[in-house]
Amino acid sequence: MGKNVIVTGAARGIGKAIALRLAADGHDVAVNDIAANRDEVEAVAQEIRAAGRRSAALIADVSDEDAVNGLVAETANALGSLDVMIANAGIAQVRPLLEVSVADWDRMMAVNLRGTFLSYQAAAEHMIKQGNGGKIIGAASIVAYRPFALLGPYSASKWAVRGLTQAAAMEWAKYGITVNAYCPGIVGTAMWELIDEKLAESEGLRKGQAIAKYSDLIHLGRVSVPEDVASYVSYLASPDSDYMTGQSVMIDGGIQFS
Ligand code: NAD
Predict the structure, then answer these.
(1) Which PROSITE patterns does its entry note (predicted)?
(2) Which residue of 51, 70, 182, 195 has the fewest C-beta atoms within 10 A of its own C-beta?
(3) 4-187+225-251, which class in CATH?
(4) 154 flagged as catalytic
């Protein structure tokens, strides 16, 4: 049975792959990202409609409380309900902790942690009113278990997403809402292009060499593609995961073991 889903940060990368995979699974999908990516958001929504599912292209900055509440309300208006929230939006920054400014720190926490909190909270409020339970899914990371040097605030934000996911799972179980997170490892997206470029700069490597160096850690022997993550999120969004809550599971090709 198809559900009504929001995917935040779905203009590209992992979020886009999740949105397309969930549409292929038979769900209707509200595609969200920031205003700067309006064309890409609309293109993903069009691709979903072309595949025969309903979709809405909804611009909202997940760090903004009113915008997130609006996103949930607009999704319910456009699709009829909200059954699954995927709080995927996130940003990364490569910078030594000694050079991280308060503004850097606040921006990271505003998007990755406050944005996830607001997405979880707005979805849960709506799902509780609907009275049919629901599924809330967040983007953590391998760094929620083992931080990367030079990604300190990012690692802290994702570690906190893991904690938030556990607390939310405990508080909302009584409403039939499950809360889980996915922890990608090294996925070849725009985010890792940036990480590679900045790590290479700081380690005296050429573009492409940092990701190659870190990829040596992957036991399955290849960098991840967004579809690796999307297939796990497909499971989390399905009734097959109904007895699972509070978990943050690594989909990293075997870099780190929980
Ligand atoms: P990406 O940069 O390719 O895509 C992230 C999307 O989120 C972008 O379209 C961006 O515009 C959007 N976004 C950023 N700030 C936003 C905001 N305030 N409101 C709404 N949308 C916003 O990154 P990705 O690699 O696809 O990562 C997706 C998620 O997975 C992120 O949370 C990231 O931290 C996490 N993750 C990625 C990797 C990886 O290796 N790429 C590893 C672990 C975790």
Answers:
(1) ADH_SHORT
(2) 51
(3) alpha beta
(4) yes
